[in-house]
Design goal:
Strand content: under 5%
Order of helices and strands: HHHHHHH
Number of strands: 0
Largest sheet: none
Distance between the termini: 77 Å
């Protein structure tokens, strides 16, 4: 007789933990490929929170091919969860493109806070 088949469950949290550990301690091209593949897999499955967990870890590899992807997430703005994942990634991947974005974002925040508090904003920052 055949035994009844049990459903296979995949522990994605464990996979993420292993890939993260490898990224931190044993970085390799194959680990980077698996990280990007898992991020894409979760994004395709409409599992956005799981997909976004991979973004800061992928940034540890500082691959130039990720710059425009991270920049697109930053440009979504702080009203999107993707922006927070990209901001964490910027901590691991200091790139001049991100520095330009952060300077512009800082000016916007300073201008907004100044206007809310009734202060005058320098003309150079109003533009």
């Amino acid at each position: 007789e055949e035994e009844p088949s049990t459903p296979v469950t995949i522990n994605y949290a464990m996979i993420f933990a292993l890939l993260r550990y490898n990224a931190l301690h044993h970085a390799s091209a194959s680990n980077y490929a698996l990280l990007t593949r898992m991020r894409t897999f979760h994004a395709d499955q409409n599992e956005r929170p799981l997909s976004l967990q991979y973004v800061p870890i992928i940034a540890l590899y500082r691959d130039e091919s990720d710059v425009f992807y991270l920049q697109s997430l930053l440009e979504l703005g702080p009203s999107h969860k993707e922006w927070f994942a990209a901001m964490q990634a910027v901590c691991h991947f200091p790139h001049h493109v991100f520095w330009t974005y952060l300077m512009a974002f800082g000016k916007k925040i300073y201008t907004h806070i100044s206007l809310v508090n009734g202060e005058t904003v320098p003309v150079s920052l109003q533009r």
